[in-house]
Amino acid sequence: MKKIYNLENIDLLAIEKSLKDGKLIVYPTDTVYGVGGVISSEETIKNIYRAKERSFKSPLIVLVSDIDKIEEIAYIEDKNREAIDKLIKNFWPGGLTIILKKREWVPDIMTAEGDTVGIRMPDLDIALKIIKAAGGLLPTTSANISGEKTPRAYEELSEVFKNRVDLLIDGGRSPLGTESTIIDMSDKPKILRLGAISIEDIEKVIGKI
Q1: Per the count of CB atoms within 10 A, which of 45, 118, 122, 132 is most buried?
Q2: Which has the closest alpha carbon to 123: 202, 66, 72, 205?
Q3: What is d(CA 125, CA 168) in angstroms, rounded to the nearest whole number?
Q4: Is the distance from CB of 51 to CB of 167 less than 8 angstroms?
Q5: Which segments of the chain have a pLDDT < 50?
Q6: What predicted TM-score, i.e. pTM, was given to this entire model?
Q7: What is the pLDDT of residues 98-125, one digit of tens each?
Q8: Helix 12-20 and helix 125-133: axis angle, to 10°?
Q9: Are the CB atoms for 35 and 52 separated by under 8 Å?
Q10: Do 129 and 12 form a contact (C-beta atoms < 8 A)?
């Protein structure tokens, strides 16, 4: 049975149990609403793709509850460590997703069989608490059917999509209301998607890309 929480009645212990049982959750982040499930269950990750009707050729990102979680799932190359540290210092928590070489244990299905993984730490307290309840790592994508409008508030979630998940968190409107910027730092820095953070702001921190 689907459970709906708001910021007043949220039960993080119940959410933790449900997530560890493989349930899917729709929850607010600082950028947009996301759908996620535990990284430890390949079937749960498949269910994220199924709910979204998303191609398995499109990777998910992993939201983390704190910076220390990065090297649990990814490698930071020495040649890029200084630049990555600067990006994290300036833009985390916040709207920047950083792509790095993934650890071998990270499920291939959520990285489209690739050797990299996108990582972000959102700047929203309720999102961080939910990610922590999931173990500090929460594979996530936007909470909409592929090709449809990305929800920036609870009331923008489609009824069809809400019926495909087990847990719903009504956190009102996402503060930023725009997707994260994605930067690939697994080799030479490269912007893959423009969003909440501008190229100009990034270049002020790590130099010309």
Answers
A1: 122
A2: 66
A3: 16
A4: no
A5: none
A6: 0.96
A7: 999 999 999 999 999 999 999 999 999 9
A8: 50
A9: yes
A10: yes
Distance CA(56)–CA(62), nearest Å, equals 16
The residue with tokens 């349930």 is 23
The runs of H, that is alpha helices, within 21-172 are: 42-52, 70-73, 78-91, 125-133, 159-162
**β-strand pairing of 61-64 with 137-142:** antiparallel
Q: Given the structure tokens 């929480």, which residue do they identify?
A: 5
> Mutual orientation of helices 78-91 and 199-206 as an angle, nearest 10°?
130
The kind and range of the H/E element at 142 are: strand 137-142
- Which residues, listed in sequence order, are joined to residue 102 by a DSSP beta bridge? 74
Q: What are the distances in angstroms from CA 20 to CA 127, 133, 156, 179, 201?
A: 17, 9, 27, 27, 38
For residue 11, the model assigns a pLDDT of 97
Q: State how far the Cα of 91 lies from the Cα of 146, in Å rounded to an integer.
A: 27
What's the start-to-end Cα distance of the chain, in Å?
48
What residue has token string 């503060």? 175
User: Given the structure tokens 């979204």, which residue do they identify?
Assistant: 52
